[in-house]
């Protein structure tokens, strides 16, 4: 039997969207905020020599700086004030989320509802300032050689500009979340990645025009892109649903039958966190060597063995992704907390005793699906390695950037549909009230 929500979803038309005034306002606000972000990626840092920076960037495209340039929408290559993007805030959020599982005070705040969430958000902002300051200081030292007037004053203004730009993006992301559509922080990263896609397509076509890539290879690349996106959408939506049964209950003199529902366990519950951590750790030695400007024979050998496209690089990349998938998934979905909540509200998995046995069963199921999810994430993330160093394709097709684009698109579309459904429900309720008034 089709539910009412499914019937409404099937009947959603453009006319429904045209009548949803609040949704249009939210969409316009979101687009305006993202436009402000894109404009900020073209505002250069004070006192920077963009020509020298372009040479520095071309010499190290495959370090963390290269990955950051993708996430920042090209702000790094343009030496813009939004160079750090909102990544310090993402890092701080991940750290705070990890700490809530080991620090009792933070765990208590997490369970206090809205007031606890606000306090945790405030701690996240404080940590963002610290992380952004550290990253800005290292970046200022690396950019010092590209300054018109190198020195402490340039480094100080660079740190202030970068930290200020990051905190402005944090505020802008919170405004999008509150007054727009979708998660603000995710949409800012999404906008930066999507903004660089036309450049990647142009490079592919230019390589075809110059004879580097044959027309058959270019056509195969586009077919592969569509296929990979389809696979990512499938796996991101994949769930293992555990049947949850609720017993009969009596309210007053009436007996209500027991309900049944599902506990959805995502195949990739950890999202893009594992590849972000894995990439950062792999590129850390090369990035430190670039910032310090000094190198040794041993470090050069290590960088050569673990360089992008090398077998050891791919092997350790996969190992780190699998490790972080298994490490982070229980933090996102705690089997113990889930089992306690089910027991608290009277729910149980048929055939499984409530409490500890339920937690063990959920953990068993999560381990099995996480293995499949880790294999899927690893395959998507090593795709850029093959394309970049075997077929000379753009660096960022696949990997973390593709996962972010697909997941953010799916979440945003789901929120738009939710607003449309809510608007249609309101319309039905108003019509029902008018009919009732007329009958009276």
Automatic annotation (TrEMBL):
Q: Does the keyword Methyltransferase apply?
A: no
List the GO biological process terms.
Answer: intracellular protein transmembrane transport; protein targeting; protein transport by the Sec complex
Query: Which Pfam family is an annotated match for this chain, by its short name?
Result: SecY
| Annotated Gene Ontology cellular component terms | plasma membrane
Q: Which PROSITE patterns match?
A: SECY_2 (PS00756)
How is the protein disposed in the membrane?
A: Multi-pass membrane protein
Where is it mostly found?
membrane
Any idea which UniProt keywords this protein has? Cell membrane, Membrane, Protein transport, Translocation, Transmembrane, Transmembrane helix, Transport
The compartments listed are: Cell membrane; Membrane
Q: Which residues cross the membrane?
A: 27-48, 80-103, 123-140, 152-172, 184-205, 211-235, 312-333, 365-387, 393-414
Identify the InterPro entries for this entry. Answer: SecY (IPR026593), SecY/SEC61-alpha (IPR002208), SecY_CS (IPR030659), SecY_dom_sf (IPR023201)
Oligomer status and interactors: Component of the Sec protein translocase complex. Heterotrimer consisting of SecY, SecE and SecG subunits. The heterotrimers can form oligomers, although 1 heterotrimer is thought to be able to translocate proteins. Interacts with the ribosome. Interacts with SecDF, and other proteins may be involved. Interacts with SecA.
Q: What does this protein do?
A: The central subunit of the protein translocation channel SecYEG. Consists of two halves formed by TMs 1-5 and 6-10. These two domains form a lateral gate at the front which open onto the bilayer between TMs 2 and 7, and are clamped together by SecE at the back. The channel is closed by both a pore ring composed of hydrophobic SecY resides and a short helix (helix 2A) on the extracellular side of the membrane which forms a plug. The plug probably moves laterally to allow the channel to open. The ring and the pore may move independently.
Per the similarity annotation, which family is this?
Belongs to the SecY/SEC61-alpha family.
Fetch the HAMAP family from UniProt.
SecY
Name this polypeptide is given = Protein translocase subunit SecY
